[in-house]
Write a structure and sequence with these properties.
single chain; about 575 residues; mainly beta; Alkaline Protease, subunit P, domain 1; 26-stranded mixed β-sheet; 22-stranded parallel β-sheet; 53 strands; about 10% helix; rod-shaped; secreted; Type I secretion target GGXGXDXXX repeat protein domain protein
Amino acid sequence: MSHKLTSQLQELLSDPSLTKQERDRLRSAWQAMTPLSKVSTLPPRPSETLRSLIEGRSKGESIVTRNERKLCQAIVSDQQRLSLVLNAPTLDARIKAVLNQGRLLNLDVKETVVRDILGSMNNRELSDNELGMVIGGKTDIFDGTWRDDYFFGGLDNDYLFGGGGNDTLLGGSGNDFVDGGTGNDWLQGDRGDDTVFGGSGNDSLFGGTGRDYLDGGEGNDNLQGGEGNDTLSGGAGNDTLWGETGHDLMDGGTGNDNLKGGDGSDTLHGGDGNDSLWGGNGGDLLEGDAGNDYLSGGSGFDVLDGGDGNDTMYGGGEDDDLYGGAGNDWLYGDEGYDTMDGGAGNDLMWGGEGGDRMDGGSGNDFMRGGDGSDRMNGGSGNDTLFGEAGSDIMEGGTGDDYMRGGEGNDILDGGAGNDTLKGDAGNDDLWGDGGDDRLNGGTGNDTLDGSYGNDTLEGGEGNDVISGGEWGGGEDALYGGAGNDTLDGGGGDDYLDGGTGDDLLTGGWGNDIFVIDGSVGHDTITDFDPNSDQLRMAAQSPNDFTVTNQDGNTIITFGDSTVTLQGTEMSAEEVWENIQQGH
């Protein structure tokens, strides 16, 4: 490999202030393609000699003062920039200046600064605009040009600047600083704790081993942390971030980003835009932020926060926490005992396997408990809750809610609003709470309480206990259905129908109506008052039923049923008159 020395270099080497040993060291370092990197101490030389190396500077611009101890330790140049490291007469001092003080001075010039330093390398022609000169000793500085540069830092801690063009920068060993600049760059920190900046353009950044910091900058970038606990920032653009192994911190920035945590307990922040976040293995924290985001926790105990926007979230394995935030979100707990909060908006939530805790928040939410014994709260809004399998606890919250317990022994509380509650299979407890509610126990021995408002309560099959609400004061309708039921109207003017079976009916205070439908069963009314309460029968005349008095009670036989009015003696005529008042 041959190298041509320019006339400027020849003039420097002919400087009489240089000793032969210094001149030989400088020439050998240059010819070995390690410009100035192996020269431990640069000799003092007059500023006039240094100026002879520089062409095209602005008129009157002072590059180096006449103070011979204030010398330029390195020259790295392209068409637009001259970089000087000042005040470092020895190599160790130069390293200190770069690393600790950052005394790097950039001066703009109008034309090419250094021309024709090298003519060829590996039989490939290189102009002065393609070559970044290596500076350093144990710390190398590579400063690229506006063309496509290739730099390899090698050992120790290096500084690589790509400048313009589509550059390839590899830090190598050591804790390196890599900056791609403009263009579509390929950047790798390799071994060590590296800092890698993509700059503008669509860049590919690789951390390698060690604890690395990667910043994609502007453009659609690809960032991979590699081994170690890394920090990745996508910046502007639609970026792809992959933490790989280690406990990584990732921020997508603006744009529609794709973030993958990989192994380890990672923190993923999508930022603005419609982002996709995958936690992978380990206990991860996923934050979608603004935009319509997709979050998947993967395996491990994960925390997912959708932020603003209409988000889709999967908890994955283990016990996860899912927060929908603002927007109409879709939350799926999947396996484990998950905690889910829909936040604001009309959310769709599914607990999946395990006993989950779900809160719809504000908005009209749709919730499914899935397998397991779940706890569900619709929050504000008109919500729909399905407990499905397991013994679930369900609260509708405010609003007009629709709730079904599904299988298992469930507890349903409608809360404020006009709610519809169905216990379905199992021995269920249903509470209407405030509002005009409709409750149906379904199969099983259920307990229904309408509480406040004008409620309709149906026991369904089984031996049910039904109450209109002791202090509610509403006009309730109670239907026992099949089975031996207990009905209590509570306060207000109530309607009680025991259905089939041997039922116990209490009207409570108020003007109540008791239905005798003639079906099979033996019912008892505990507090019938002929002056305020009424009997309803399909009898056409007093000849359709019989009345007997026994032990101070009235027994009415109608069809296949009997009704006992406790504490009241009435004749057949009085019973018929009471029935007629209700027609």
